[in-house]
Design a protein that fits this description.
2 copies of one chain form a homodimer. The termini of chain A are far apart. Chain A is α/β, with parallel strands linked by helices. The mean pLDDT of chain A is 96. Chain A has a 7-stranded parallel beta sheet. Chain A has a 4-stranded parallel beta sheet with strand order 5-4-3-6, with helices on both faces. Chain A has a 3-stranded antiparallel beta sheet with strand order 1-2-16, with no helix packed on it. Chain A folds into 2 domains: 240 residues, Aldehyde Dehydrogenase, Chain A, domain 1 (3-Layer(aba) Sandwich); 144 residues, Aldehyde Dehydrogenase, Chain A, domain 2. Chain A is globular, with a radius of gyration of 24 Å. At the A-B interface, helix 10, helix 14, strand 13 and strand 16 of A face helix 10, helix 14, strand 13 and strand 16 of B. Strand 13 of chain A pairs parallel with strand 16 of chain B, so a sheet runs across the interface.
Chain lengths: 413, 413
Amino acid sequence: MSVRDLALSAKAASGKLAITSAKTRNDALVAMADALITATPKILQANAQDVRLAKERGEKDSFIDRLTLDQKRVEGMANGMRKVSLLPDPIGKSDAVFVRPNGLRIEKRRVPLGVIGIIYEARPNVTADAIALCIKSGNACVLRGGSEALLSNAAVCDALNEAAIQNGIPDGAIGLLRDTDRAAANEMMKLNGLIDVLIPRGGHGLIQSVMQQATVPVIETGVGVCHVYIDESADLAMATGIIENAKCSRPSVCNAAETLLVHASVATKCLPEIAKRLAARGVELRCDERSKSLMPGSIDATQEDWSTEYNDLILSIKVVDSLEEAISHIETYGTHHSDAIVTECYRTAERFLNEVNSAAVYVNASTRFTDGEEFGFGAEIGISTQKLHARGPMGLDELTTVKYAIRGEGQIR
Amino acid sequence: MSVRDLALSAKAASGKLAITSAKTRNDALVAMADALITATPKILQANAQDVRLAKERGEKDSFIDRLTLDQKRVEGMANGMRKVSLLPDPIGKSDAVFVRPNGLRIEKRRVPLGVIGIIYEARPNVTADAIALCIKSGNACVLRGGSEALLSNAAVCDALNEAAIQNGIPDGAIGLLRDTDRAAANEMMKLNGLIDVLIPRGGHGLIQSVMQQATVPVIETGVGVCHVYIDESADLAMATGIIENAKCSRPSVCNAAETLLVHASVATKCLPEIAKRLAARGVELRCDERSKSLMPGSIDATQEDWSTEYNDLILSIKVVDSLEEAISHIETYGTHHSDAIVTECYRTAERFLNEVNSAAVYVNASTRFTDGEEFGFGAEIGISTQKLHARGPMGLDELTTVKYAIRGEGQIR
């Protein structure tokens, strides 16, 4: 099916899907999770072929790892769907009801976005995850996964779709683009009127390409150049724990710290210990002039380091003379994703929260908490780095829009 | 100044503007309103020149009317600014504060979007209006008005900017693009990282052009093909009043009705009277086959009529056999802006509110109420016809985004 036909089917289905009950959608999700388990042999067979082809092409081990499914990973996908089925329904509730002087009762009601387009790379678990979040939130979806995972994605999608249709989800609500030509993806990005929002999930290149080409509204996710700033009043043991966690607990993700800023008055006291701790975790340290002598084994940072998302066990370090200098550095080189201060000073903490213009700003906690699960949203479709519609971790509520339902008694203007 | 330099200045100013107090912003707005009054002679002089040039080019009377300022209109602009200064502050309040099991206190706090770009056509009052709403909501702005109003816009902007800077608004927060070349506007639409959101205000052509070309996130405003549906259970006197009001009270605006749908069982009873009432208001009636014989003086509707926004004293009329047919017509030909049903039946009313997928859905009221003032928002930056970020009338709250301010005690993950 062409991408246009997929989107037309999705749009036709979305009207019906939007008015299904939460029970219908939740029961369908449980049935879909069961169907995924039942289809495990088929899915693993398809996946084995994707993996074989990827190995023949000479893909890197990390790529093969992300692509590969096994029984446990399929179970993980199914469990994810069951968990989504248990979350509160984001649809139909009202943000507000107000009555105007003329008696009109205006209700601001949460409704699905309609049709969500998701363009993603070679992780087949995203297929199940995205479908679960869309169905839960009453949205139809058009998925375009990486060509490297097409057979796996198709097997997952077929199993889910069949169970969905048998359980009251309108046919057409779940669409997977099987034409992995770039032209089809490009056409998808311009289907205004059919697709309500596009969410790219993947690397910087993918996201930028969608941002540049799409005429459909896009939610940008992604890049995080996150900072930890150790203030002069910081509890230095706490600071050491936070930077170690922010850098080392999972360096490949967007909420990991890339730069450590340290107030000059505590640099001598804390940097040697931090260097020791990070060296033990295998972190490469790239230092400005003032921090270098305090961190044995470090190398010189270049100008480029300050704006680099390493996604790796590398940390840049800079000594600053004031809160203002720290904030100014963060505003200049950061990506407004997640930034943390370690401080015991009330006034400094409040100023940092106010003045650092990032999606998530922390006092005395690791940047690694910027995450839908950690925020208690129960699920996450991505972390928005734009300001429109959603900012920070996006849960089910971010997959909804509003409509005004207005009750009158003949009012005219 | 080039559009890039204007945007750079706006971005630099936006960080400072975002942390000004509500009092600073409100006092500045009052001073700016006073400055507008003081500058009236200069503004009228500049405007007279715009008007003279427009007349020399042979512009239409309606265009000249929208372009022309007089003392009363300048006073109207100043009063609008004073009114905005009195509205509740949309900045700094929290949508929610929640505590996670690990003790993290997560606050979802309203903050300005940052830099708002507004591209609009030849109505100089939009300049003052847009500046007021942006300053009130803590946003810097880059304005690009129509070339036909450049002298007027510049005079308005200069007066406001001077007073703003004298009253604590950072220099650069208010930018007017004086290069009215299309190339500069095109560049503006691609200033990702400098401009956070673009709002086009004007006709369909302008909005579509911005939607197609912009890589900066856009809020689409505009086209309304709005319907009134008279159900079989309707109070017909109420229905007649509503369609008359929805069509005639201001036919040029997007929330005016363009199509009347009537249930077959009441068509004979109500259409002749409606025809009489609308004829007296000078409305041209374009009817489907079944309604035509009931509406003296009407002409045949063509297929095109069902999807046309007349913005004029023209109404298309169609007889339908059921609620389903009415909803299906609205979903097929409408623009999901504002649609109304007139009914006395509870179940029909609730189904219409649920199933019609428009920004504003009315029971027993005129579509003309879709408006920021009428909704009680106090001000309106436009009516969003997209689903992302804002839908329906946009007030000050829609000019904000969120950030998560998170307070911890050393939490790591």
